[in-house]
């Protein structure tokens, strides 16, 4: 990438048929819909893509389909997280070979009882950086249970060539982003938040330059970022107030199912199936989701109609 990536970098859902098979055509339609939503980049194979229920062969297929279909229209970010350093390195090389603009990875973990020491975390990121020449985004999320203190993140940014982007989605994310930016300086190229942008305004106040949301309605969330970065803070606040009810409902009630449900309703994909042991959302939760999305007139709700 010639310039630092900013803006909105949503996670693409992985569509399945009602019988649980990967929907290849649906994946292509998801990519097209997200591009039409005005996203600045697309992240695939992340937690909100149900990466934890995909086989290795399915991962490889989805990566190939997504990167080939995007065809350079937007930068593509491939999530490569795994406990095994050898597997993470292989995934990184495969992503780079297919044209990924960036990889994203969590620190190695396997349940809260199997988390390596800081040295092991550092060494895994260093191994990936040595294997590729594209940026690495560090995903700092409670899901891993692996602590990533600011001093470790700054050391990685300073010493590991390709570690330069950070997705911070821990409690009090704004405070951590502020400390990261202050201590890391020029080595912190891309400070981002996550969690469906539920803390976005505070995170922008702290210095974040973008957000990684779901794919449900980036067309409505993006103006919060663009207006803020342009110095139009009142306009950003107005957009935030409009989006917050739907952001909150997705974050607190729906999770990764929300984008699929809205995309199915809008004809982007045929099914909102999630693989077991995940369960469909209740009709009560779904009705509120679609009602809030309809009030905002989100693009995904009408894209395929």
From TrEMBL:
GO terms for cellular component: cytosol. Belongs to the DapA family. Pfam families: DHDPS (PF00701). InterPro entries: Aldolase_TIM, DapA-like. Coiled coil: none annotated. PANTHER family: 4-HYDROXY-2-OXOGLUTARATE ALDOLASE, MITOCHONDRIAL, DIHYDRODIPICOLINATE SYNTHASE. Keywords: Lyase. Gene3D superfamilies: Aldolase class I. This is Dihydrodipicolinate synthase family protein. Pyruvate binds at residue 212. One of its GO terms (molecular function) is 4-hydroxy-tetrahydrodipicolinate synthase activity. The keyword DNA repair does not apply.
